Amino acid sequence: MNPIKAICFDLDDTFWDLLSVIGHAEQTIYDWFAANYPKVTQQYSIAALRRLRVEVAHEFPGYHHDLMFLRLQCYRRVAETAGYDADMSAEAFEVFQQARNQVTLFTDVLPALKVLSTDFRLFTLSNGNADLQVIGLDRWFEASFCAAEIGCAKPQPDIYRAVCEASGLAPEEIVHVGDDPHNDVHGPAAIGMPAVWLNRGERIWPEDLGQPLAEISDLGELRGMLEPHA
User: Fold this and answer.
1) pTM value?
2) How many of the other CB atoms lie within 10 Å of CB of 68?
3) Element (H, E) at 7
4) Residue 60: phi, psi to the nearest 5?
5) Contact 39, 83 (CB under 8 A)
6) pLDDT below 50 — which residues of the chain?
7) Which of 1, 14, 160, 227 has a CA positioned 20 to 30 A from the CA of residue 20?
């Protein structure tokens, strides 16, 4: 591998388990609705709210990169159908966001960041809307990028190019690390950005994709395979 100047990390399912985080957030907002806007829970179950979220996403095909917008639109629809003022949607969104940023890091995350930050510039790139400042991880990263701010989502090439442009680095000087074969490996590799697949669960690599630069099961393995730029 050529000398690397920076590492760009995915967040959801790379630093924490997304299913448990979203499950907690959905239960938190549902309990909040029950306590503050009970007509919502009289009309919707948690599963029904999930289905509504999917329906709303179909209604706004140009906003699939902006999960915050879609969730806010969902809560506006909930407020309308339950007979509450539209202001409820912004309040509900803040409650959800607070819960969404309550994460439990995988045990390898902090030790790896401490080691890697001594030799590499660190960035994050996510299709989600986690807030690293709220979570308490922002101090490890020079910058964090998300699909909503860039205007497109992984695996579209422009989202990786945006990281290169903002950092002043060429694609081959940044290695991207994440759990999703399409978003975190195939996507960046398409613009010449080396990518490492984080496979925490003994998953099988998709046959339709070219092989990743490397496969790891623990972020602690990264330092041994990367040669920092002198």
Assistant:
1) 0.91
2) 15
3) strand 6-9
4) -125, 70
5) yes
6) 230
7) 160
pLDDT value at residue 225: 85
Helix (H) or strand (E) holding 177: strand 174-178
Cβ pair 112, 220 in contact under 8 A: yes
pLDDT for 1 equals 53
Please tell me the predicted confidence (pLDDT) of residue 111. Answer: 98
What tokens appear for 48 in the block? 């029904």
Domains in the chain, start-ordered, CATH in brackets? 6-16+104-225 (3.40.50.1000), 18-100 (1.20.120.1600)
Confidence at residue 228, expressed as pLDDT on a 0 to 100 scale:
62
Q: Return the structure tokens found at 182.
A: 């399409």
Q: Which of 49, 98, 38 is nearest to 76 (CA)?
A: 49
Residue 138's pLDDT is what? Answer: 96
Strand arrangement, sheet containing 143-146: 143-146, 121-126, 6-9, 174-178, 195-198, 214-216
* Angstrom distance (rounded) from CA 121 to CA 106: 21
**Backbone angles phi and psi of 198, in degrees to 5:** -95, 105
11 neighbors 130 (Cβ within 8 angstroms): yes
pLDDT of residue 201: 87
- Is 43 in contact with 82 (CB distance < 8 Å)? yes
